[in-house]
Design goal:
By secondary structure, this protein is α/β, with parallel strands linked by helices. It has a single domain (20-213), classed as Vaccinia Virus protein VP39 (Rossmann fold). It is built from seven helices and seven strands. The chain has helices at residues 23-34, 36-42, 56-65, 79-91, 150-155, 159-162, 179-188, and strands at 46-50, 71-76, 97-101, 116-121, 163-174, 193-202, 205-213. A seven-stranded mixed sheet has the order 3-2-1-4-5-7-6, with helices on both faces. Bound molecules: S-adenosylmethionine. Residues 27-127 form the Methyltransferase small domain.
């Protein structure tokens, strides 16, 4: 079992500015750990986490991939999250994380078209008024707009162009995001394989991991 990354360098007040890992984060970590052998067998060269927040997920992914020359790119719309992601890598002796302060995959495509072997996203999934979407601060951690789907839906058209032929995408969703509908969209509209691989209740939330690949 791979230990949860050390986050002791992040101070309590930092969590006013960057998302504090919670049950959703841990479900995503568990999904990656469950696929540890599969991920290692792919020998990933470039991994990307969208919305890396504290950097906890990418750091664990780097530990799973192990000693290799793989590159771990992260994006976040919140610049403090990018800084924290880098620090979390260093705190855990992971030096190959390159945080990019951008939205979703802006600046990644077209250069890295079909080059991403492992893609992860724990998105802002909470149902909120549309007007709350699009901040650059801590609100961007949760504000998902109508059905909590606005940021997620913006990404879906790019997935087939991001993933390498062997690439795997791990996406966290909650019931309100209509995970089954997202699976159908990925299959019928984009011709990808998609399935729910994990689900768990966390208080009032029902959380899911959807895995998507070519
Ligand atoms: C629920 S938090 C997840 C943070 C971390 N990955 C985790 O699992 O603990 C969502 C993250 O997505 C970021 N985010 C929101 N909208 C984004 C966008 N359009 N592009 C990139 N990152 C975004 C937020 O700033 C936040 O860090």
């Amino acid at each position: 079992m791979i230990p949860t990354p050390d986050l002791s360098h992040i101070k309590k007040q930092d969590y006013d500015r960057v998302y504090e890992p919670a049950e959703d984060t841990f479900l995503l970590l568990d999904a990656l750990e469950e696929d540890e052998k599969l991920i290692q067998s792919l020998k990933p060269r470039i991994c990307l986490e969208i919305g890396s927040g504290s950097g906890c997920v990418t750091t664990l992914l780097a530990k799973i991939v192990g000693d290799s020359n793989a590159l771990f790119l992260t994006t976040d719309i919140n610049s403090f999250a990018c800084e924290t992601t880098r620090q979390t890598g260093l705190q855990n002796k992971v030096t190959r994380i390159e945080p990019i302060n951008t939205s979703l995959v802006d600046g990644i495509l077209p250069r890295l078209k079909n080059r991403i072997d492992i893609l992860c996203f724990n998105p802002p999934y909470a149902v909120t008024p549309h007007e709350e979407v699009g901040s650059f601060g801590i609100e961007a951690s949760w504000a998902g707009g109508i059905d909590g789907r606005e940021v997620i839906d913006e990404l879906l058209p790019y997935i087939k162009d991001i993933l390498s032929p062997q690439g795997l995408f791990y996406l966290l969703l909650i019931e309100e995001n209509k995970p089954k509908e997202i699976v159908e969209i990925m299959k019928n509209q984009y011709g990808m394989n998609a399935m729910i691989i994990m689900q768990r209740r966390a208080g009032r939330e029902k959380q899911f991991i959807v895995k998507i690949h070519h």
